């Protein structure tokens, strides 16, 4: 059956791989949204002929607007954050895939749910910063929330038997360990952005790749898992699986463990989110066990990689503390990529956010989330000066 997809973040790593899946399945693209990569977005418009397009960056929006004047049947062009929200809520799509990076993805997530669309979620920050708001909206609107992150997709796939799912006792969330696994603090003191951007297994955008190097990505995924699957944080164990073949595991009351395996290719979890509950042939290669070799397991070093420890502390405290940690991390990663702070400073900022916002617990609104995020970013700027 043909599905109509609205894809947010279409020019990013997850976005382009999502279009690989959409192309392979013959799905219709209803809407596309991008930030500033006008050239790639224009090529996507030519190939997929969406009904509507949103461009957040003003200069990129003007470039797209100018080029669309030469199209015989141009899509509706929406501009800025307001345009992104309008596209998200627009009727016509069966499912919305949110591949926006960072807290900027929270508002579209909530808008998609409120519009009654099923949501394929690749934006983990929606649940990290607004988990209570998102899960309540999903419950109230009765839509499906389908995880796209490879680890959460693996857990989701392992829980498709509803009888076994009721006996879930533990999640084993796997991590590659990133490019610096086994390094000491002394060895990490002078690493550069170029060093951190060389991930051993996955091809991702720069922000997520840095998060993988600091293990913040795994901390954010732990928080996401708590909201998605309803287990307390102490029941989510981080296991380093260097080869990124086992994408995560679940343990049940009888201590049996189920795992989902596959090549490290994001098109597998993307496709499962779009085709669920069906499984169909897709563009990702199969896993060849005869050439696989050894699968290894290890413990994540929270003493060296302080971002992971900070994320654990944040979800244990609850409320807006995860929002603060995420905001501090987003700002610190941007400063690190700009060469303004060191690699280890990212963890220091995350820990400072936990300490500064430890009392920000309890219920919160969307406005509270964005105010807390802004305060955490200002804190990082103050500590950097």
Explain what this protein looks like in three dimensions.
The protein is an alpha/beta fold and 385 residues long. It is built from 17 helices and twelve strands. It has helices at residues 13-25, 38-48, 58-68, 80-89, 106-114, 125-141, 150-158, 162-165, 185-188, 193-196, 206-214, 216-229, 267-275, 306-317, 321-337, 343-356, 366-384, and strands at 4-8, 28-34, 52-55, 76-79, 95-98, 118-121, 145-147, 168-175, 236-240, 246-252, 257-261, 298-299. The protein has a seven-stranded parallel sheet with strand order 4-3-2-1-5-6-7, with helices on both faces. Strands 11-10-8-9-12 form a five-stranded mixed sheet, covered by helices on one side.
Short characterization:
It is built from 17 helices and twelve strands.
């Amino acid at each position: 059956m043909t599905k109509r997809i609205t894809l947010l973040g279409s020019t990013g790593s997850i976005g382009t791989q999502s279009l690989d899946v959409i192309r392979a399945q013959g799905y219709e693209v209803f809407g596309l949204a991008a930030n500033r990569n006008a050239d790639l977005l224009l090529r996507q418009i030519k190939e997929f002929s969406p009904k509507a397009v949103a461009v957040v960056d003003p200069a990129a929006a003007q470039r797209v607007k100018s080029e669309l004047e030469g199209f015989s049947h141009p899509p509706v062009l929406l501009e800025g954050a307001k345009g992104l929200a309008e596209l998200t809520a627009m009727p016509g799509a069966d499912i919305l895939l949110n591949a926006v990076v960072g807290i900027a993805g929270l508002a579209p997530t909530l808008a998609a749910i409120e519009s009654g669309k099923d949501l394929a979620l690749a934006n983990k920050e929606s649940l990290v910063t607004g988990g209570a708001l998102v899960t309540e909206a999903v419950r109230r609107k009765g839509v499906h929330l389908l995880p796209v992150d490879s680890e959460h997709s693996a857990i989701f796939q392992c829980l498709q038997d509803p009888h076994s799912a009721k006996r879930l006792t533990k999640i084993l969330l796997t991590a590659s360990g990133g490019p610096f696994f086994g390094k000491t603090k002394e060895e990490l003191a002078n690493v550069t952005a170029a060093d951190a951007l060389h991930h051993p297994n996955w091809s991702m955008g720069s922000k997520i790749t840095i998060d993988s190097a600091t293990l913040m990505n795994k901390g954010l995924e732990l928080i996401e898992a708590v909201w998605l699957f309803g287990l307390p944080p102490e029941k989510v164990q981080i296991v380093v699986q260097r080869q990124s073949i086992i994408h995560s595991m679940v343990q049940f009351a009888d201590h049996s463990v189920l795992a989902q395996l596959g090549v490290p290719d994001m098109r597998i979890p993307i496709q499962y989110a779009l085709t669920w509950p069906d499984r169909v042939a897709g563009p990702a290669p199969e896993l060849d066990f005869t050439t696989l070799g050894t699968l290894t397991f290890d413990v994540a070093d929270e003493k060296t990689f302080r971002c992971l420890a900070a994320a654990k502390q944040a979800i244990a405290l609850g409320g807006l503390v995860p929002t603060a940690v995420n905001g501090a991390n987003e700002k610190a990663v941007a400063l690190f990529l700009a060469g303004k702070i060191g690699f280890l400073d990212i963890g220091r900022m995350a820990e400072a956010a936990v300490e500064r916002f430890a009392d920000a617990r309890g219920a919160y609104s969307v406005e509270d989330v964005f105010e807390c995020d802004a305060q955490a970013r200002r804190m990082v700027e103050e500590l950097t000066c």
